[in-house]
Fold this sequence. Notes:
single chain; mainly alpha; Glycerol uptake facilitator protein; 13 helices; 81% helix; Aquaporin-like
Amino acid sequence: MSESKTSKSEEQQNIDEELKNSKSSELTNAKSHGEILKQQIIDGQETYDKSALSILLSSLTAGLEIGFSYLLICALYFFLHGKVEEDTILKSLAIVYPVGFIMIILGQSILFTEQTSLLTLPVLNKKRSFGSLLNLWGLVILGNLIGGYLIAFVLVWIGPRMRIFDLETVEKIAVHVIDYNNIVIFTSAILAGWLMGLLSWLIAASKSTFSRIVLIFIITAVLAFTGLHHSIVGNVEVFAGWISSPAITFVDYLYFILLALLGNAIGGAIFVALLKYRAFVYDVKG
């Protein structure tokens, strides 16, 4: 048992040393796998070091800001309704969907799906405990959801009064989001979490604000164009439908948000954080 613990300790020391010494490629000036991973672990640990109130307020801000994506989704849907086919409208929403994500990520508010893999890496690197990860996830999710509820109430009230969109638009978007069986929503959310975790990794690899904006736009536009389920945007979409239309029940909302959150977490933590981290570890061992 003692030898096993010593071996694991030495292995962790080797990993930490390799991360410490990771540098950009001299030929391409591109960040190496180890350098990106090191930055992600450092960024993740900085979030752990923040106070609970700071995390809650930052995640609340992200929940509010994602509402601007929803505002534009509703506005564009309402504007195009009756002018083009329904399928074309739904696909065209990918043009405006990324706006809220750009605001959140460049503004460094804390969004659950973008932070899922980031916050998992310090745990894999044995710098934080699994319990602390769950506590942090809980705070971020709580803030994101409350922010989403607040902005949904505001937009459902102001939208029809300013003729930006009507309540029929709100209902149609909500029904479109939940119009699948639970397995489909869950699997879709895993893929969405995977893409958002990958986005976090790619942003860490980029070196300019412009390239980050392009990456955010590409990844989130893919989510919108394919209809993959993002828990925090979906929270606003389905909650707004529930408070404004009898076509959406509380049970509909509850099933959706639980499946979407769980799927996003699995996609971000397993398919990005775990695989990226293990790939580096095996390289160190090799």
